[in-house]
Design a protein that fits this description.
mainly alpha, 7 helices
């Protein structure tokens, strides 16, 4: 796990177990704690290649389905035009997972929601 993304593991250990310097502990102890991290932990998402956690996937799917239901009641739907774009697909295509500044985060946010 350390070889995959040490920073993600450090964040997960700090958030979950309040361990701020894993090197102060036996490697076997840290290994046990790391294996016990949840599926939505940063390190497990990094290992699996996922960028979103389960709740984010579910929320995006719900929004997409609601948008389709609403759209299906419109004249545009009757003519097959202006179908709503999938939020889930836009989020999954996003390659940025960490930001160096608030400005970088805001720029990425605007790209995702289509503001710029």
């Amino acid at each position: 796990m350390i070889a995959t993304d040490e920073d993600a593991l450090i964040c997960d250990l700090a958030e979950t177990y309040h361990i701020y310097n894993y090197r102060d502990f036996r490697p076997s102890y840290i290994a046990i704690l790391a294996v016990g991290l949840g599926a939505d932990s940063r390190i497990k998402k990094a290992i699996s290649g996922e960028t979103l956690d389960t709740s984010e996937l579910m929320m995006a799917t719900i929004i997409d389905q609601l948008n389709l239901i609403i759209w299906s009641k419109t004249k545009d739907a009757e003519k097959g035009r202006n179908r709503p774009k999938s939020i889930l697909q836009r989020i999954k295509k996003s390659e940025v997972s960490a930001y160096q500044s608030p400005q970088a985060w805001e720029e990425a946010r605007q790209r995702i929601i289509g503001g710029e």
